[in-house]
What does this fold into?
Amino acid sequence: MMSVFRSSRLLRAGVAAAIGMLAALTTAQGEELGPVPQIETEAARVELGKRLFFDRRLSGDAAISCASCHIPERGFSDGLPLSAAYPGSLGFRNTPTLINSAHRAAWFHDGRLGTNLNDVTREMITEDYLMNMDMRLMQERLKQDPVYVEMFAAAGYGEPSNGGVRKAIPEYLKTLISRNSLFDQGAMSDAAQSGFAIFTGVAGCSNCHSGARFTDDEIHNTGVPDNPEIWRDPMRHATFVAYAMFMGVENYMNIRRDPGAHVRGHAADGSDIGTFLTPTLRELTQTGPYMHNGVFATLEEVVDFYNAGGGDDPNKDPRLVPLELSKQQRTDLIAFLQELSGDPLVGPEFVWEEPIPTEYEIIDDWRDTPN
Ligand code: HEC
Ligand code: HEC
It folds into this structure.
């Protein structure tokens, strides 16, 4: 809690008050600056969700698990500019961190899912270019595994079911919450404190990166340049075309840019083309490359991008203007961003470390055999 007081004292000391930024630090939903709130969970459900998250049998050909792309040691992202995909295809978006994603109001870089994590989980499992799994096949695989039979019962979900999976994985995701950053402990370095003042002051970052997770959960156009790799690589392009066709994007064969949240807003004048959800700024030291398409490898590149007033786009948010920050100010801003990262979420609390045995007796008529 200390940090909250210390941060607000820093603010009252003049920086933000002068610029009228205090209000901007609270999100539209009223979320305030401070440590990210932990979420209460049920242990048996979390354990089940954790095993499922690390189990490759949740993908069609049993080659990849959720953790193949959301890697704990990389802040539950993957370190790649553009994600991998189901074997035989490649992705066209940067894999986002899952840390704090349970607090989001909408998911995916374009915010196309705004319901809940159960739906996000279903999407990840069934989408052809992600896990490519048929839910009926998944249920059979789970019902064959005596460990799951036990774990589903212990979690209070009855027999292994697809609905149970869509509840247990989100329960596990709720445990992935940031903790113990220097910012949260009120122990920021002098450079980071000065960076914080720049962030909330002259640089205007907190116009969009507000609240405990440093996101307003809204969409904005910052003019991030497109990543040409998506159209240069036929496997990525094919995935992009499949996505754009499914989302009803006009001219999906010919466009060479990511329409972003236009797929959910469909603004008639196209003003939402190239808008993306503001990401959290927590755990950045673990989650590069940055932006929806991973075009920036380092925080230096990100800060240089904003210092130049963002990218070049007719729909760009007018608040992004050249900042003319000095070298020292840019270094301080980066120090602040780094000190928003806390303990890595690794170890048995977050990672299923035991082997997942697959040598058990197969039940032939599994459909009619109650577990
Ligand atoms: C092949 C790589 C891959 C696999 C496997 C994968 N994901 Fe993802 N995940 C992604 C990518 C890429 C995105 C962003 C998609 C987009 O913006 O279009 C994403 C987005 C998400 C999000 C939304 C995060 C946010 O802040 O918007 C959640 C939650 C998520 N994945 C959970 C899971 C779960 C649970 C599984 C396993 C059932 C899983 N993922 C499997 C690559 C993967
Ligand atoms: C107008 C709203 C807005 C302002 C102002 C803004 N950002 Fe952003 N920021 C965004 C959006 C939207 C994205 C995601 C863009 C994308 O994925 O293409 C983003 C992405 C980022 C990322 C990448 C995070 C990741 O995990 O990929 C960083 C770091 C960042 N911003 C820092 C800053 C800093 C520092 C400032 C101030 C100099 C700032 N932002 C100002 C909206 C904003």
